[in-house]
Model the fold of this input.
Amino acid sequence: MTIRELKKLGKDKLVENNVDEADIKTGLLLQYALGMNKVELIINDKAGVKKDVEEKFWEYITDVIHGKPVQYITKRQEFMRLNFYVDDNVLIPQPDTEILVEEALERISELYNELDRTNIKILDLCTGSGAIAIAISQCLKDRVKNNEINLEIYASDISQKAIEIAKKNAKDNNSIINFILSNMFENIKEDNFDIIVSNPPYIETETILGLSQEVQREPHIALDGGEDGLNFYRIIAKEAYQHIKNNGLVLLEIGYNQKQEVIQLFKQCNKYVDIECIKDLNLNDRVVKCRVNKE
Done:
């Protein structure tokens, strides 16, 4: 059987089982099974496929039909044009989260260009795969290399397995990150951060059960934000200002329907000003942004 024929059969099987993005997922699984990239798959689509590879491919197709995310099969996900190792111990980085990175980079540019700051310190809470911290590091690597800025990035997570994966991703992407095993701020001894960024668990506990099979295969510890989805925002609102410089920035990913509740939590604390919400490319509320005011 040729690559082209196998791809069509795989796609048809996924479509038959109502799997979304069947063509894309089939291509990714074939690339992984054959050890090819996308271009090589197209160029060699008339080449034959060995029996053992074909069998492995059908195993992957079956896993996807049963709800396993393709990324947990291939162990790879792209984020900010970087490749990250992922497995079922961490959330799969999503494009919507890139806005967090972009907002952090914009603030760093402000610190450097407008305030003449060269020492910049960042904390990424609930780092998971390390995608946010590593993406920030990589986007600034030239400035660091040219000694324009001195960048310190810390990243924490409650899961030891997640920390191990994040360390692997940092190594694979040549990023220097200080990783801390911590339940939120418990083991964070550092303070005076310029930016605290986080994509915390924010899905309501009961809502998780109604999500797609793929999402439910992701670690619930990284999804479950408690009964109302706001548990971790309460902690951040209560404690973040103690670890951040005056006028430092807090950036938080939120659920599409949590804007008002999260903003209210930070208003009630009386330590945050200039609270606003930024939409993602789909025009959903995505990031709450605020400054610390200790005066």
The mean pLDDT is 94.
